[in-house]
Amino acid sequence: MFNPYFRPRRLRQNENIRRMVRETALSINDMVYPLFVTEGKGVKNPVNSMPGVCQLSTDLLVDEVREVNTLGIPAIILFGIPAKKDPMGSDATSDEGIIQRSVRAIKDAVPEMYVITDVCFCEYTDHGHCGAIVNGELDNDATLEMLGRQVVTHAKAGVDMVAPSGMIDGMVGAIRDALDENNYANIPIMSYAAKYASAFYGPFRDAAESTPQFGDRRSYQMDPANAREALFEVELDVAEGADIIMVKPAMPYLDIIARVRQEIDLPVAAYNVSGEYSLVKAAGQLGWVDEKRVALEMLTSIKRAGADIILTYFAKEAAGWLSE
Ligand code: PBG
Question: Per residue in 249-280, pLDDT tens?
Fold first, then answer.
């Protein structure tokens, strides 16, 4: 009979030794909680496809941020749903836009919360694309100029970090220039550098009311079949001055997170997107999986793959689970 000489099970015999040899520790310190802000007062619209997630008006948003702060979550990322959409997404570049007013309200009430804004136009344009449409197509360079104006309004409102998500060529450089020229050299950029054209964004588009009215986003977001191209996208954003590199979605792209971690020495963020959240929630509600264990395993896998920062709708629940 074969008598194994190596017995890795020796180090799995009880929780204490498992704790000692554990390689990855999930921490609330690494999490960013996404929030959706809408117009009005006292408004709390549950997002049907994302149980536990609501669109909130600014007053309730501030209450929510207080709670997020109490839970020890260091940062939020804000998405806005404006009162009015138009072809140029003008709410996004106005000092009185929904995001600009919300950032001011949060910074007044909870100044210690680290506030990140998503920088894109898809929630603000009536066509639902991520920038200016010229001759039926997203015009790259016209959008760069708009992004520059957008970030300066966010900076004026008091944002701590901006996160461009449109996959527009040159967006990081254009945003860096606009910030620096306006004396905001200290505001970092977290670039959605490798963002895939993913069906996992479906529930988010309900939450943010940002579904494209024609076509899709495949002419600017990446083909899910490509990995080397992700590294090229990341290298470009590093060269343009990105401070943090993001991979999105997270769980179906763990190989990309691991490769970016290996090649790049900047902090790596991963966006555990709406579809990843809703799949776990739905199966949990049906009693088909143990929601808490599946969610923690998913978040741990993202960390293990190499993400330093995880943007996740599970952040509030994770704060509770991790302190149990
Ligand atoms: C674009 C943006 C999207 C998400 C974050 N920023 C949607 C898209 O590209 O269609 C998706 C996040 C998620 O699915 O949770 N502003």
Answer: 999 999 999 999 999 999 999 999 999 999 99
Nearest to 40 by CA among 21, 20, 19, 55: 55
| Residue 204, ligand 1, Cβ within 6 A | yes
> Is the distance from the beta carbon of residue 312 to the nearest atom of ligand 1 less than 6 Å?
no
DSSP class of residue 50?
S
217 lies in a domain? yes
* Residue 189, domain member (yes or no): yes
11 within a domain of the structure (yes/no): no
Confirm whether 6 is domain-assigned. Answer: no
- Separation of alpha carbons 199 and 215, rounded Å: 14
**For residue range 176-193, what is the model confidence (pLDDT) as tens digits?**
999 999 999 999 999 999
CATH number at 59 reads 3.20.20.70
* Enclosing domain of residue 175: 24-323
Q: What pTM value is reported for the model?
A: 0.97
121: exposed, middle or buried (Cβ count in 10 Å: 0-12, 13-18, 19+)? buried
Taking CA atoms only, the protein residue closest to ligand 1 atom 8 is 201
Name which residue sits closest to atom 16 of ligand 1, judged by CA. Answer: 120
Q: Are strands 54-57 and 114-119 parallel, antiparallel or unpaired?
A: unpaired
CA angle 287/293/299 to nearest 5° reads 125
Q: 131 and 212 in contact (C-beta within 8 Å)?
A: no
How many domains in the chain? Answer: 1
Q: What is the gyration radius of the CA atoms in the chain, in angstroms?
A: 20
Cite the active site residues. Answer: 195, 248
